[in-house]
């Protein structure tokens, strides 16, 4: 039997030492009528048979290796250096658990501290936790954190209409049992923030939003909100922060992000990485594991889980969240990614995304019948209004092994012709030109 | 384990060094408006080799399953087979975008469907959602479902959730997030639920009971059928915390006892790596009355269970997604921690039903063997056969505490068990060896603990000063929490 060391002889000797006649005797507390039921299951596979089955399944998918992808909408194809997987897959990291015993876990603890440090720099926050399940749950928990202001009347949550729809659905689930009221805002964020009142717990900005629109920050937004005692939550693209302002620099109180882009593959939706950071005294309201520097009796520097009085294993129902295990290894991958990319690499990735996306938007915007809907700035995603339905265009381009983007009709049936196109550092000029040519051909004949 | 500490990334490298190679800009440049640009970016400037040495050295400061026996109670630190890593790293899986049309992701959806079916078979539940990302996330999902079920029946007064005092802290924390009141039920003298206290607490304000079975004491709830009946008779539902399912795979299906909803910890029972704190996967199973409340999307096969739910899209493939009729909605983006699901699927396919029964049998044999080896040295408050884990007390000599025993174990090459949990056992040492350890390892671990008990009497200072052979000694966590230093550049 794979992965079990005990032989029949071992078992006989062990059962004798335990003082029972049979293995079944150890299960005597289970009601007899339900003990050892018959279970319908596929037949066991040897390792080579298993790999053949797994390759069969993987082979039924269309991976990004075969296709030119311009599909983002919350999951992004970015370059992952080979060293990320090589290091993160080391068993010393992957087969350890939550570092409850710091003397035997300094590797994991220091890596978390380094992750916290680099993400704090990117986001402009004072403290970053060791992860949430993904960007959606990080944002949902940031909103719950804002609702724990201590003021029972502060129950309004201002969400952008242009928020990623899966994030909105997740937030709705998390808020359903609370007394919070969601107010949707649209248009210019600065004007929208003007509607905040003494009842506003938080104002959320997705930066850039689901359709790619990128607000040019101004300090007065945070000043307006803070004047009403509300918190400013920014959900940002972490790759973009390689060149763009840290949200902390324009007054964000909490920053969340989907960290998948930082060294984690798209992987059919998970595991991803929920990033969360905050400022000042708010850290004591922030959920999640946090690692801090600590000293031993000889004054040597080490790292340990800290501020644990916020957490469920200490405070139980009074904890700031129920979060326990999170996305440790995805966080480690992000840490290694940021270390490898560093100052020069991350800004290059961000610049490549910006420049290639803007080139693509210009090329597509020039095709008769196609219109770029983003009126202001955008980063790596933009929305195109196509001359025919975006689903139809997508189907036509799949035959050429191009995935041209995300048809907005999947979340908003009233926008059949809109397509969200994502361009990253992996999309070269010839590939973008190929996309533009294919779009032109697919739209031909439908233009007045 | 390596003995010396490692510098921080911020203490390494030199301005201008690069650790990654990126394409040249091949399109005309578009200037970024000044108002968007950051002025500084303090990130590392190191070569790839410096990064590789840094993280390799860091890894050597860890104890892990691959390097040490790691009997962390309630965490099921079993061996994580390498073939599952190969399977999960197949490009067909890792490079598949979650929003691709279902026709182009048939392999991933088929795998999810197969995993759902296997989890249903081992648990007896009617339906499974793979979306929750961790055990605590699964608990939260289950409590949301219970809440939604009572709401659907317009039963607004049910706000109390009963939780045994031996439960994980995540149980009451999840209950609070769902807007319920957590009510603690004491344990009886034999470590089970106190039936009289349970009956007294059950009335028409009870939303349900959350029960971990086997409990965190490693004991199967002997009265499970009666416990469930008491709660059901009061109109409440029963949540099963599946953290300890490694004792039961192939031996008992929780749904047979009337459990209404339960999470599985795929990273425990089904061997996916714990990753230094996740990612896990907290799939949730539900009985017929709660199945329609599960979070979606859920994988479905055409002609089997397609068509009853909302949101199914027409595809030409055999597999697709659907959202259950009364779904509580999404609990995260997309479908779950897919890469973890691949590993759990591979593990279950390799073992089959017979293999899974062998898992629980050997996990229980190993725990009982270790329990018997230690019971004359470490007091065991519930001296009866255990399931996959057991709890002992670490205060083996005057002035010596469980933490001292735990730290001394590190010197002897073992990761300590879970300590000071469950809360109802004084100076608890919670030990879970798992089925993948050999008798020789268990003998060596027992010998180490017995040696430590002797040292506790002959040289207690040795224990107080432990660990000795680690890159750092015991850290002053109180001082660290008082003046937190949480990143390089933060003031």
Task: Describe the protein in words.
Chain A has 2 domains: 68-78 and 342-443, Alpha-Beta Complex (Aspartate Aminotransferase, domain 1); 83-337, Aspartate Aminotransferase, domain 2. In chain A, 35% of the residues lie in helices and 15% in strands. Chain A has helices at 8-18, 47-59, 82-88, 91-94, 106-123, 135-147, 165-175, 189-193, 219-227, 312-315, 328-365, 390-398, 429-443; strands at residues 68-69, 127-128, 156-160, 181-185, 200-207, 213-214, 231-236, 254-258, 274-278, 291-295, 301-305, 371-372, 377-378, 381-385, 402-403, 406-407, 418-422. The radius of gyration of chain A is 25 Å and the shape is globular. The mean pLDDT of chain A is 96. Chain B is α/β, with parallel strands linked by helices. Chain B has 3 domains: 9-59, no CATH class; 84-347, Type I PLP-dependent aspartate aminotransferase-like (Major domain) (Aspartate Aminotransferase, domain 2), CATH 3.40.640; 358-477, Alpha-Beta Complex (Aspartate Aminotransferase, domain 1). In chain B, the strands form 3 sheets. Chain B has a 7-stranded mixed sheet with strand order 1-7-6-5-4-2-3, with helices on both faces. In chain B, strands 10-12-11 form a 3-stranded antiparallel sheet, covered by helices on one side. In chain B, β11 (418-419) and β12 form a beta hairpin. The longest helix of chain B has 37 residues, at 338-374. The two termini of chain B are 33 Å apart. Chains A and B meet through α1, α2, α3, α4 and α5 of A and α1, α2, α3, α4 and α5 of B.
Could you give the order of the helices and strands of chain A? HHEHHHEHEHEHEEHEEEEEHHEEEHEEEH
Q: Which class do the helix and strand fractions of chain A yield?
A: alpha/beta
The end-to-end span of chain B amounts to 33 Å
Computed CA radius of gyration of chain A, to the nearest angstrom: 25 Å
- What is the total tally of β strands of chain B? 12
